[in-house]
């Protein structure tokens, strides 16, 4: 049974244009609890139908739930942007919905339809619209989750699935210049399509903690993982796609099953082609990265960011940074489309308010 709805109270609260009493400049990328979350459930073999907005908070789940015992769960991440005129926009939410479905199919889970996903995101944003930061001062980050919540002791697909969306206002994911360390001992994903590196499975993230914890203790911003098959090609950061720039050419590792098909990545490729750059998706060797002019990362959280340096085998390689770099030109265009200051000629944005 779905949790009781508080939709009427939610709509009354969401009519308020009063911002919460917080300092937008201090929020960073950490959880700030908001007012409402969205919950929808369905049984195995059935389809999702109707969900509800409920007050943000904890919810009960069986200790025998598939998400807790066998990691049957996936998540997404997207943002709501406030324009200078006060409107609220989403950026390519249908891509998040399709990626969630691909992940759900891989893990034998029932997923919401694209329409259900987008409508749920819209409802969540409207219910929490006072938490969408003013233009230029942050975004509302939305975290859709799909979890096996049915109780079962044996290994197998869950008997019940829960789709949940919560949100938090955020600003920059990283502060200051980015300095990465190449990880040579641990691997993020199995090479090829036999693993789960290409979906946002919840099981993909905790295994990188030893590498990232060690790197951050050494003063690095993040780690850069190599392919598990040869250890000769770059793949991803802990939560971002990678691009190398040499002259007018931009290369990024192909999404071959081990690398997440990032929506920001996909959008940056399209923007770069429109701006006249030569873009190639293929295997990128460590040696090629070491002689690049620029190195940058992309993702919903990081947006588009220059990487100032990479340390490989105790040797630090530095790259171009600053306003005139390719990365910053791409970032400016992307953010302009997302926030409505540049005309969206591709139909990427969805207006919520």
Automatic annotation (TrEMBL):
Taxonomy, superkingdom: Eukaryota
Entry EC number(s): 2.6.1.42
Entry-linked Gene3D superfamilies: 3.30.470.10, D-amino Acid Aminotransferase, subunit A, domain 2
Coiled coil: none
Single annotated GO MF: L-valine-2-oxoglutarate transaminase activity
Sorted UniProt keywords: Amino-acid biosynthesis, Aminotransferase, Branched-chain amino acid biosynthesis, Pyridoxal phosphate, Transferase
Catalytic activity entry: L-isoleucine + 2-oxoglutarate = (S)-3-methyl-2-oxopentanoate + L-glutamate; L-valine + 2-oxoglutarate = 3-methyl-2-oxobutanoate + L-glutamate; L-leucine + 2-oxoglutarate = 4-methyl-2-oxopentanoate + L-glutamate
CDD domains per record: BCAT_beta_family
Swiss-Prot/TrEMBL GO biological process terms: amino acid biosynthetic process; branched-chain amino acid biosynthetic process
Classification via InterPro entries: Aminotrans_IV (IPR001544), Aminotrans_IV_CS (IPR018300), Aminotransferase-like (IPR036038), B_amino_transII (IPR005786), BCAT-like_C (IPR043132), BCAT-like_N (IPR043131), BCAT_family (IPR033939)
Family: Belongs to the class-IV pyridoxal-phosphate-dependent aminotransferase family.
Identification of the protein by name: Branched-chain-amino-acid aminotransferase
């Amino acid at each position: 049974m779905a949790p009781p709805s508080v939709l009427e109270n939610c709509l009354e609260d969401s009519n308020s244009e009063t911002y919460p009493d917080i300092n937008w400049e201090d929020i960073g990328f950490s959880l700030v609890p908001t007012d409402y979350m969205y919950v929808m459930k369905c049984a195995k073999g059935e389809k999702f139908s109707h969900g509800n907005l409920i007050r943000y908070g904890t919810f009960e789940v069986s200790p025998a739930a598939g998400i807790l015992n066998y990691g049957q769960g996936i998540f997404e991440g997207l943002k709501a942007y406030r324009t200078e005129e006060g409107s609220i926009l989403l950026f390519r939410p249908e891509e998040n919905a399709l990626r969630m479905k691909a992940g759900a199919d891989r893990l034998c889970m029932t997923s919401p339809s694209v329409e259900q996903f987008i409508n749920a995101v819209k409802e969540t944003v409207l219910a929490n619209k006072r938490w969408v930061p003013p233009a230029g001062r942050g975004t509302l980050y939305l975290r859709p989750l799909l979890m096996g919540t049915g109780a079962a002791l044996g290994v197998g697909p869950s008997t019940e699935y829960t789709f949940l969306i919560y949100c938090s206002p955020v600003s920059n994911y990283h502060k200051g210049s980015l300095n990465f360390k190449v990880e040579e001992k641990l691997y993020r994903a199995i090479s090829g399509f036999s693993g789960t590196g290409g979906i946002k499975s919840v099981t993909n993230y905790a295994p990188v903690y030893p590498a990232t914890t060690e790197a951050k203790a050494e003063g690095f911003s993040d780690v850069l993982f190599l392919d598990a098959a040869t250890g000769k090609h770059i793949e991803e950061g802990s939560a971002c796609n990678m691009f190398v720039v040499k002259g007018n050419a931009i290369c990024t590792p192909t999404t071959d099953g081990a690398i997440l098909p990032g929506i920001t990545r996909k959008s940056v490729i399209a923007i770069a082609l429109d701006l006249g750059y030569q873009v190639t998706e293929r295997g990128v060797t460590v040696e090629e990265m070491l002689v690049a002019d620029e190195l940058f990362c992309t993702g919903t959280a990081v947006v588009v960011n220059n990487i100032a340096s990479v340390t490989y085998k105790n040797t630090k390689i530095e790259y171009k940074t600053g306003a005139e770099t390719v990365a910053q030109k791409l970032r400016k265009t992307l953010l302009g489309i997302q926030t409505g200051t540049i005309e969206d000629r591709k139909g990427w944005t969805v207006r919520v308010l």
